[in-house]
Structures are given as structure tokens and as C-alpha cells.
Amino acid sequence: MKNFSYSKILSHTILILASLLFLVPVWVIFASSTHQPETILNNGLQFLLGDNFIATYKSVLFENSGYTKNITVLDMIGNSLILAFGFAIGKVVISSLAAYAIVYFRFRMGNFLFWLIFLTLLLPVEVRIVPSFEVLAKLNLLNSYTGLIVPLIASATGTFFFRQFYKSVPDELLEAAKIDGANSWQFFIDILVPLSKTMMIALFIVMFIVGWNQYLWPIMMTTEPEYSTILLGIKEIYQSNFEGSYLPEFNRAFAMIILALIAPVSVVVILQRWFIKGLVDSEK
Amino acid sequence: MKKVQFENNFIPYLFILPQLSIVLIFFIWPSSMAIYYSFVLEDAFGISSQFVWLDNYKDIIFDSQYYSSVVFTIIFSALVSFFALSAGLFLAHKANGIIRSKGTYRTLLIWPYAIAPAIVGLMASFFFNSSHGDMYEFLNQIGWEFDPKSDPFDAQVMLVFIASWKQISVNFIFFLSGLQGIPKSVLEASLIDCKSSMKRFWTITFPLLAPTTFFLLITNITYSFFETFGLIDTTTRGAPMGETKTLAYKIYQDGFLGADIGGSSAQSVLLMIFVLLITVFQFKYIEKKVHY
Question: Which chain A residues in 63-102 lie under 8 Å from chain B, judged by CB atoms?
């Protein structure tokens, strides 16, 4: 029994240390964001809170920043929200429809189209960046929300997610619905969608985070600052800190990092159960 | 597929049309362009182009920079997968053994999933910075002349560390849910047969986790190959001496920044073939060997 409690203490110690490994860096960034830029420049990162919290965050959120000085960080957060919501909603709607066609219909080319969609898993956007940029330019979609959101939906992860789920739905449901005279649209809307509500929310949460954290695609797609997401804003202020000639505004960069973390971290923590379900089930 | 299905020649196309059109326009079209460009030599202004067959591929194969990128990518993903998987499994095992406050630890360890790789990189660039970074000073104080700006090895170590840091939480989530899925009766039976908890873990628990581990291995490799892009772009950007470029980052640098469309497209095609091979391997070979 003594031995047992000893190993228990060891487990707790290890888990606490691991938690600190993740918490401390973010805390230091937050604490540093509440100091004057000169303090950080002269004394390095800070572990204790400073007294500049309200001033820094107020100016970061509401005053214009960026190269052209015509967008606030609040606008950038707005853009990130548009991207994350648009991407997540689009993904859930489009992939549940496509999976429905693949699982519930016998049609010519069905198999071929499935493999065509499957192919998208092979080549992430990082790898086809130049031609993708050209296609977007040809379609006149650079610097638009459509160009920011829609091409990202191409990947097949969501389609697989729903395909797996639909396959587990008992056949009797469709038989019964057919006897009752339901057509394919009615079966989808009245039976399948209510059944897959949990799955839809779970996938939505995972995709919200994926969308919020997009980095390379927005860099390429947006040359006008009004479409800048918060991640791009941080990159920009970081570059002017290390490469520019101004007094580095480290406190602003840190505040933006913290602001960029608030939305996705709260989603993961608050909606934890759904989130884990979405993540684990999408991979079975 | 379902035994009972709808028979209709028209409706299913309507359902699949939105996804299909996005795939055709934003995936198939640019990917075919990449394949076409890989056989073409364009002048610097993009005015004239010439079909050069496999010349772009030949250039890559004889390019020592490409080799060092291949070697770096393989070692990088092997190390990141190894560290992130072992740490994730270790922590999940510890958390699963605790009855009280398991939920708290779960929250404390899964939230880093929400941090974008680009933000991990930005944060790291402050901690490892030579003028005021705590990690930089710490490493130099313990006697390692750590300098990621000029020493490729130091930069590579730093990247492996922060890339693994970011990936631990995903592995933790999957391993924890895998561990929770193991039936209690199996564990109780093993408790009677074997006293050593280490041995129990390696002979009973670990084999039962094989499907999860296998899936995560693929996820971790894909992560190291592609998602670390933001992490590299905010820290080393391939420097020093081009020794920290993953294949995906090299494609971006050569194609988008260096305007070498042919060479970068040929690299894309090679990477595409590599991913295809991994996928086939995944489906045909390993899945059969993994014990379910």
C-alpha cells in the first residue's frame, strides 16, 4: 500500500511538471505583454505582471496597426472568425452532403468520384502553393473571403468522417423511410441530419480550430491588409520588431499572441468533450 | 457500402456536386498545373516557356541542397514523431492511472492543441533569441554554446524540440482515449497474472494500443512534413546554411520566393509520389500487421 501511494505521488509530480511545460511559456508571454517595451528590451522576458496591461491591450485592440495603418487587431480577429466559421460551416455542410451521395446511392462513377476526392489527402496546400495562387489569380479571388475560405474546404477529411458515421447507421432506417414514402432529400434532412448532430458539432469544433490556425494560405491569398487575420498581424509586427528600424514593440507582439490564443483555447477547454469526440472519431 | 440504397441517376450528383467542384477547381486544376510545370522551363519573367522533359527532375536529383533537405526532413520527422509519441503515451498512461483529478490533467494537457504552429514558432523565437531569450541564456549557462542563428545543428535541435512540444497534446488525447477504451476485465486479469506494472504495460496495454499508435505515427509524420511549415517560417526560415528546410518549406521557398516554378513543381510531384507511397503502404501493409 505504501508503495502504491509513492507511485501515485510520482504520477502527480510528472503530470504537474508536464502541465507547467505548456503553461509557463504562455504565462511568460502574457506577463511580458503587460510591461513597457523598454523593460523587455533591457531586461528580457518577464515572469511577473507589469502595470501596462490596460494601456497595451487597449491600444492593440482599438488603434490602427500594420504596414498601412488602416486595420485594428479587433478587425483582424474579426477576419480570423470569418475564416474559422466559414471554413467549419462549409466543411460540415459540403462533406456531409458528399458522404451522403457516396454511401446512400448506387450510381455510376460513384466509386471513381470517391477516389477523386480521396486524392486531395495526398497533396496539402503547402505543396501546391504556386499553382494554387495562379488559379486564384485567374479566378480573380485574391483578396476575398471566398478565396480565403473555399479552397481550404477541398480536403477530404470531413467526407471520410461522415462516410464512416453513415456506414454505422442501421440499414433498417432507410428501409422504414422508403416504406413511408420518404424521398432522398427528406431522409437526409429528417433522419440523417438529426442523427448526426453530435458528429456535426464535433467536426465543426475541430475545423474551427484548423481554420483559425491557418497560416500559409492567408499569407498568399491576402495582399491587402483589410483581409489580414490575427496570425498574419502577428507575423507582421514580429518582422518589424526584428528587421525594422523602429523601437521594437515587443509588448504589442506579445499581446497579439495572447489575443490570438483566446478563441481557440477557450473552444478546446470549454467544449472539451465534443472536441475530443470530433478529433478521435474523425480518424477511425 | 449499404445494402439498401437509393437508385437514382441524377440526385446523387447534386449532393456530391459542391465538394466535387471545389476539388476540381482548387485541387485537381492546380495539381495538374504542377505536374505540367515540372516538365517545363520558364524564363525569369514568365514570358516564354519550353518543354524540357525530365530536365527539372535531373536538376533536383543532382542538387546537393535537395539531398540535405530530404535527409533533414526524414530525421526531423523521425525524431519529432518519436519524442512526441513517447511523451504523449507516457503522460496518457500516467493520467489514466489517476482516478481523481484526471479531468483537470486532461484539460491542462490538451489545451496546447489550440496553439497554431506559427504561434509556437513566434513564441520560440522570443525564448531562443540571443538578446533576451531565457532558453538561449539557460542553454549557454549550462555550457552549451547554443546559437541557432549560425549553427545548423543547434537550429535543428531547437526545431525538433518545439515541434515535439506542439504535438504532444494531440498524441496525449488519442492515447488517453485509447487507454480508456481498453476493457477493465482485461487489465484486472493481467493484474492477477503479473505483478510488475512495467511488464504489464509492455505486454498487455501497449499491444492493445497498436491501432492508435499506428494511426498516430502516420499523423505525426504528416505533421512533421507539412504542418511544421508555420513553425519553420517563424523561426529559422530554413537558415542557417539552408540546413533546416523541410521538403514542403523548400518547395515554397524555391517556387514562391525564388520563382523557380519548374524546379519547385518537380519537387511537388516527387513529394506527391512519396505521400502516395506512404498511403498505399499504410493501407496495404501495416494495417494487416497491426493487431486489432
Answer: 93-95, 97-98, 100-102
Residue B137: its chain A contacts at CB < 8 A?
44
Show the domains of chain A with their CATH numbers: 68-281 (1.10.3720.10)
Mean pLDDT of chain B: 86
What ipTM was assigned to the predicted interfaces of this complex? 0.88
Residue-wise pLDDT for A46-85, tens only, equals 888 888 888 888 888 887 765 556 788 899 999 999 999 9
> Across residues A226-250, what is the average pLDDT?
77
B103 to chain A: closest CA residue: A272
Which of B13, B14, B23, B130 best tests the A interface by mutation, with the highest count of A CBs <10 A?
Answer: B23
Q: From CA A193, how far away is CA A191, in angstroms rounded?
A: 6
Looking up cell 432506417 gives A173
B5 and A104 in contact by Cβ < 8 A?
Answer: yes
Q: Do B110 and A268 touch (CB under 8 A)?
A: yes
Q: Would the CB atoms of B119 and A260 count as touching at under 8 Å?
A: yes
Instruction: Give pLDDT, residue A1.
Output: 44
Given a contact cutoff of 8 angstroms between Cβ atoms, the answer to whether A113 and B20 are in contact is yes
What residue type is assigned to position B45 of the chain? Answer: F
C-alpha cell at A173: 432506417
Over residues A244-257, the pLDDT tens digits come to 556 677 888 899 99
Span between the terminal Cα atoms of chain A, in Å: 39
Of B4, B98, B169, the CB nearest to A175: B4
pLDDT digits (tens, 9 = 90+) for B237-251: 888 888 889 999 999
Question: Structural domains in chain B?
Answer: 60-289 (1.10.3720.10)
Separation of first and last alpha carbons in chain B: 22
DSSP-assigned states of every residue in A35-47: S-HHHHHHH-S-S
Asked if A94's CB is within 8 angstroms of B18's CB, the reply is: yes
Cβ of A119 and B91 within 8 Å? no
Q: What is the pLDDT of residues B177-202, one digit of tens each?
A: 999 888 888 888 888 888 788 888 88
